[in-house]
Amino acid sequence: MHQACASIIGTHQSPINICEADCFEIRDALFVEAYDDESTRGCITGHDDHYTFELDVPGEGLRAPAVQFRSTKATLRSIHFHALSEHQLEKQKFSAEFHLVHEICSQAKPTDQYGQEPSSKIVIGVFANEVDDKEALPSLSLEFCKSISIVKNAKERSCVSDPFSFADLLKDAYSKLERFYHYRGSLTTGTHDEVVSWFVLKEPISISSSMLNEIKLLDQPTRELQAINRRIVLSKD
Q1: What is the domain-level CATH number for residue 119?
Q2: Mean pLDDT per segment of 10 residues, for the chain of length 237 residues?
Q3: N or C: which end of the chain has fewer CB within 10 A?
Q4: 76 vs 103: CA distance, rounded Å
């Protein structure tokens, strides 16, 4: 039984510890396309004690957040959060980590120099450090904490909070896309499918103490580090 499970999980698992000295430098950019702030609204959902922010389907004419790496384009679908961070840099953890989950929507073309990423998702890992509530984004902190409280205190096993926007956090995260680590790995929850092209940002964002405390109280699972198993980690500065 254990051998069968191990073979299903595979050898390209996440998260990992990233060591700068072991990385290979690249020049290829990760960038975000122009999008409408109205398309960053969504709700906190809770399923079996796992919480995530699910984006609403954009209204007609609205551009959803989308990122591109080389010829691969992916659209933002959800945001997960963990405290402490799942990935580590030089064995160091951060206060929290947000996962911006993008679904790959582009298709390979004969003219592609590199070809498409061999994944179904681009996930951007964003480290977060704690700052005093007065130094953080007050509107996001209040709406996030309120939404988490609604879902946590609901009697139903699955619940959806009132809608709100992650626009401010996304602007902060997307402004830091110039410097990242890139490797191919897996989801860190559920069945841990190896369908992810990971981009872990080198520069952390800041979140309020209140927001961090709410994430901690959720007791979201933080997966242990996984072996790199000869995978290559790329670095962009």
Answers
A1: 3.10.200.10
A2: 50 97 97 96 86 93 96 97 97 97 90 85 97 76 91 80 94 97 96 96 94 91 94 97
A3: N
A4: 6
